[in-house]
Amino acid sequence: DQPYFTKALQEALPQIRETAETAGIGELNLTLVNDIVRQDGSESPKDSELVSRLVSTKEAREKHIAEIEALLDQYSFQGVEIDYERIPDKDWGYMTAFYRELYERMHAKGKSLRIVLESRAPVETLKLPEGPEYVMMAYNLYGTHSGPGPKADKAFLKKLAKRMTAVPGVKTIAIAAGGFDWHGDQVTAITEQQAVKMRYTNGSDLKRDAASGSLHYQYTDDKNVKHTVWYADGSTLTSWIDTLRQAGISHVAVWRLGELGSGTLDKLVQAATTAK
What we know:
With 276 residues, this protein is of the alpha/beta class.
């Protein structure tokens, strides 16, 4: 129940800072997730009970906020992003109190606060405080919890954009690159580059879904297991961005930028430039 920096992050942070400075990135923020890492190496990702313990009392919230404040001071971060997921319905009142109290502390120190919300978050009924930037996750419409399909489609994006009208202040919707590979009773997350490589290796016919703009194909591997792959490329992502803009959302985040396909980053840069 206390912040934990992985060894990999501790080793990478100096290079991250150097790269950010070279690229002219003025603000470096810290993202916190509600994952548990135990001493034996086992993990509990997106742990609901952890959230409850961190925010369900005034004393617990104050302790947690003080720990966040200390981290930002120690590592000279300009702001914090709270990405706590699978929040129990009973805890939303405590969470909004946490958001408000954390924002007041961050604002007083000249730090920014960004709050990530799952698409299942009941934003229409929550009393979210003014001040933070709110980011709605618009992905995994299909994924590890379902059968094959796109991470998002245009109808899903339009619905979320409409729901975001209930959220105060700066509103951002996050779309996701990459996709999933359904095979047997397993579902594996893949990047765009991995999806392209698998298709070329197996010679599968590629189709584009009209409702989502996503690409998909099927193949059978050398163990006679059938694979169904859905993923987003640059055209998919830019079509989603256009859909959100038409629905009134001007701020779009992309998760994540690693292993994009050839030309995808160029399309995203062009979309960002067009927005300006």
